[in-house]
Structures are given as structure tokens and as C-alpha cells.
């Protein structure tokens, strides 16, 4: 029993060491996204294994340190982002993309999960994370506000570069999500006017209207600074506003992840405004 107890403690120590160093994983992921490594390996669909030196030459022809890149690649290989291929004499390592790694490849519409990675690791959020414990000590404390002097939505509204990144991140995530939804859900049938609350760039409405052309109008409803950057989409109008005050009327309302951002009381207010925006027979 003493041996088992000692082994258990050793495993616990190793586990806490891994947790303490876990920041190295998202930061390594952030690095390969910034370096555009996934597209360099993918090369239009070949996904041929490349060495760190070959990848570096593709992403930064003026030079750099392939050894440092290889350390990052090996780290992410252990988490399933890359596959490692050893040469016959085991002197050279090459890397290809796994299914996880392929989510970082830019598609024909310029989208991927890469922007989502960058958006979650941008400076404003990284300043807030070390303050999370203060929200436990004082429930009125909002780490993001304390770190950046204002709430997230107003902060991003004043940061065009970050706002653009958020739009691209949401588009990259929304498109595959909506493909899955539309393959298994038919609740949009029979609607003529559909509003997407927190619709960002309007990607979801674009896909819904493509599958259900009987919907005469889609309303992409989001903050004014968000919809100001949204592209023109046939059949879709972009409306800026505040969902805590009112929501455009329609016979159907669609919300993706917007409620995950708010407190229960705030979500209740949003849902009450949705109820007011719907006719008696609305969805």
C-alpha cells in the first residue's frame, strides 16, 4: 500500500506540473497561427511532411531559427495538431497536418479556425486572465473591465483591428457549425422573415437563406460597429442596435451562442425582448 500511495503522489505531482505549464500549449498554437504554418504545410492540399527548416523557409524566407520552430512543432504534435515523421535514419523530423491541424488551413473563402485562436489570445484578454481570482473575492469585479478600463464590447468597438479579427473569427467558426445545423434541422421551413440576434457578419443567415429561399428577408442584428463592417448579402439587411432594449420583429428568431456571454438576468431580458419581437405564432 505504501508503494501505491507513493506512486499516486508522484502521478499527482506530474499532473500539477503539467497544469502549471499548460499555458505553453495555447501560446505555441498562437505562434504557429501567427507564422501561418498550417497553410505552408498544406500547400493547396498536398499536406506533404516538411522539416522545420522547410516550413520556416516558406513562411519567412529571410531566415529565422528552425530549432525554435521545431520545439513548437513537437509540443503541438504531442497534442495532436501535427503528425511527426522520422527519416529512415531517425536524424530528421518532418511534420504534416492532422485533422485538428487542418482546421487552421485557410479555405477558399479565406476562413479557418486560425482567427478564433488569435482572438482568444489577444492582449486585452491576456491582461484579464490573471485577475479572475478577484471576481471570486468581489463579485462586482469584472476582470476584463479592471484590466482594460471598460467592458469588452465597448472596448472592441473602439479597436477596429480587434473588431475585424472578431468578425473573422466568428465567421470561421460559424460556417462549419451552420453546415451541421442545416443538415439536421428543418425548423426554418415556413418562415418569411428571420432575425439572427448577434449575427456578426451575417454568415449564418446567408447559409440559411441559401437553403430556404422561401425566407423573404433575413435581418442580421448586432451592435452598430459590428454590422458596419458586415458584407452585403442578397436577401439580408444589417441592423445595428441593442438587444437589451429591443429586437427587430420577425416570425422567427435565431440565436447561436449569444446567450453564453451574459448573466442569467441579462439572458432573461434578451429572451423577453425576443418574445416581444415575435408574433403569436412565431418561432
TrEMBL record:
The keyword S-adenosyl-L-methionine applies. It comes from the Eukaryota. Residues 17-107 form the O-methyltransferase dimerisation domain. The keyword Metal-binding does not apply. One of its GO terms (molecular function) is protein dimerization activity. GO terms for biological process: methylation. Keywords: Methyltransferase, S-adenosyl-L-methionine, Transferase. Residues 132-282 form the O-methyltransferase C-terminal domain. This is O-methyltransferase domain-containing protein. It comes from Hevea brasiliensis.
Amino acid at each position: 500500500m505504501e508503494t501505491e500511495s507513493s506512486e499516486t503522489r508522484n502521478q499527482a505531482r506530474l499532473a500539477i506540473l503539467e497544469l502549471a505549464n499548460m499555458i505553453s500549449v495555447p501560446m505555441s498554437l498562437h505562434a504557429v497561427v501567427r507564422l501561418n504554418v498550417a497553410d505552408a504545410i498544406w500547400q493547396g492540399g498536398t499536406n506533404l511532411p516538411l522539416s522545420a527548416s522547410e516550413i520556416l523557409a516558406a513562411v519567412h524566407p529571410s531566415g529565422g531559427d528552425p530549432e525554435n520552430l521545431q520545439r513548437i512543432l513537437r509540443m503541438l504534435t504531442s497534442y495532436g495538431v501535427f503528425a511527426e515523421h522520422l527519416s529512415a535514419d531517425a536524424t530528421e523530423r518532418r511534420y504534416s497536418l492532422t485533422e485538428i491541424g487542418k482546421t487552421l488551413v485557410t479555405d477558399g473563402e479565406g476562413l479557418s479556425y486560425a482567427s478564433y485562436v488569435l482572438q482568444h489570445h489577444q492582449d486585452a484578454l491576456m491582461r484579464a486572465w490573471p485577475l479572475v481570482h478577484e471576481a471570486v473575492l468581489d463579485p462586482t469585479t469584472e476582470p476584463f473591465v479592471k484590466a482594460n478600463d471598460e467592458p469588452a464590447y465597448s472596448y472592441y468597438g473602439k479597436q477596429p483591428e480587434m473588431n475585424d479579427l472578431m468578425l473573422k473569427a466568428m465567421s470561421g467558426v460559424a460556417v462549419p457549425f451552420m453546415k451541421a445545423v442545416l443538415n439536421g434541422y428543418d425548423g426554418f421551413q415556413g418562415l418569411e422573415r428571420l432575425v439572427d440576434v448577434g449575427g456578426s457578419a451575417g454568415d449564418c443567415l446567408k447559409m440559411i437563406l441559401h437553403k430556404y429561399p422561401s425566407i423573404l428577408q433575413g435581418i442580421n442584428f448586432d451592435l452598430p460597429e459590428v454590422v458596419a463592417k458586415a458584407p452585403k448579402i442578397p436577401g439580408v439587411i444589417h441592423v445595428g442596435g441593442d438587444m437589451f432594449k429591443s429586437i427587430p420583429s420577425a416570425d422567427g428568431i435565431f440565436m447561436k451562442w449569444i446567450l453564453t456571454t451574459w448573466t442569467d438576468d441579462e439572458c432573461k431580458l434578451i429572451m423577453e425582448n425576443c418574445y416581444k419581437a415575435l408574433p403569436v405564432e412565431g418561432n
